């Protein structure tokens, strides 16, 4: 009888352990935030009145007659973006000077007043069509700051902005991201606007519920805190979103996100391929090189953010050949660098313990972000160990957490041993969606990843090893 009972207990506990799922820890990303994070890399297009007046910020007094691209071709933008591996394009439908790239009913300052296509043109429409043709997503940048609009600085302006949102959100098909700029200066009458953020957010939630909204504090995705193309090494997607607002002067204090933040608002790195956001002929030879874009990628996508790379379209209405060459060079580098050198068949991945058969070591090399390895609850020092039967020339370790279950890891270290006996110890804090740790390129023989602190039972969804190279086929990391 005792034996039967004991066996029953054993069988039951086996099934409990077998089927037990690890609970998520809040805050959690929504479905659309998870989908957005998977995009990783997409483009920004700054093309508007400033392109023709050769400035970065217009004053709102520019004549619409300036806007006259000679060869505008949104299909060229989309073709290049697609070939460059971007997943979408976000267009400056209206910048701070107030000029609208589509014939809005709520401003008199738009393409409708320009000589381009005799005032019958609509850049947003052309880009929406081109994106559809090339399988790209479309995003909208609509500057709340408007240095032209006579209503700016009054309550009416909030309603006008919301009406413009409605036009953009209802006339051009699906939108994947809505971008609010944090810049807020004076309007034409010297007044500043108090923005009605709840109204603006409700417009997107109503007309494009699948679109994520970007601003300094979200609500869905947030500014990284600089425009130079990198995220900070420690990066939490959770943040106390309600303590900050667009243009918040002490934003620096929030740039790492917060371990115990109230909301999930992952960072986006926005950076231009040239020094300026808009096209200036004098910057034709200042386009960032593919090597520099690769470093930006590692410091953005490889640090728990997405990369929004701006391409300034020129006065013809085309992407300049220097920019497109660099974008293609960058795509080529990613292709040559970002394939996993860990072959599960020959390089043995071992773990210190396994929670149950749902969270096995196999999940670490399946490239699937929704499956993960987890150690036993009582494993006080969870370790992932990789021994190479043949050492592998590499310079980057990539780790991922399954973000759908929340961000957990607070600190970890990586020990690397090269074939020649050299050793490194890398100490780091967060992983998040993706973390790339670079080290001097060597033939690597052993790697140990030690999970030290975590907010809840730790989970790792993927481990990969790369050799990231420059255009000269040398290591990008010496
Ligand atoms: C900034 C703006 O002031 C720049 O002109 C540009 O649009 C950049 C993306 O955001 O805050």
Structural overview:
- The protein is globular, with a radius of gyration of 25 Å.
- The protein has helices at 2-19, 31-39, 49-53, 74-83, 123-134, 155-170, 197-207, 290-300, 321-337, and strands spanning 41-46, 88-94, 137-142, 177-179, 212-215, 221-223, 238-239, 263-264, 266-272, 306-312, 347-351, 383-400, 409-418, 423-428, 435-454, 462-466.
- It is α/β, with parallel strands linked by helices.
- It has 9 helices and 16 strands.
- The strands form 3 sheets. It has an 8-stranded parallel beta barrel, surrounded by 4 helices. Strands 11, 12, 13, 14, 15 and 16 form a 6-stranded antiparallel sheet that branches.
- The chain folds into 2 domains: 31-337, Glycosidases (TIM Barrel, Alpha-Beta Barrel), CATH 3.20.20; 347-466, Galactose-binding domain-like (Jelly Rolls), CATH 2.60.120.260.
- The protein binds beta-L-fucopyranose.
- The site of beta-L-fucopyranose has 6 residues, from loops.
- Beta-L-fucopyranose (FUL) is lined by residues 56, 181-183, 270, 277.
